[in-house]
Specification:
With 144 residues, this protein is mostly helical. It has 5 helices and no strands. Helix 1 runs antiparallel to helix 2.
Amino acid sequence: MLSRSRGVHQAYEVVRAGRRGERLYEVDEKGARVFSSGGEPRELTDALIRHAYNGESTTDFPPAAGFTAASRHWADVRAKVEELTKAVEAMAVVPVDEGGRSLVERDGWDDAQIAELRRRLDRSDRKLAAWADTYDFNRQAAQE
């Protein structure tokens, strides 16, 4: 994945390479290629690179099938999780009074609202876990 910490120059070079028609592939944090469940290297697109670097929306592109379409949605999932994380962190620091202690640390939040949100998050978490299990299974099968 392309991260902001790699710098503007590297992002520019990657996008430029893609525009020259060179195939670009997703890599993990150690620089090793990431493979699809079918064992093929995951190819990057300009749209995914721009989204990973600057948060540019990927939902403006026409729907497609296959890995490219799924990758666009995956980029959106990652962005939404980041938004949720930031929103929860921001809520945690809202004080009771100016300069005071956190409202939610002191008073908590309505348990019915929390329970409903946690149920929704748990369903998504279970779905993500199933996808990871399937990926691992397919990757191991491809290596055998």
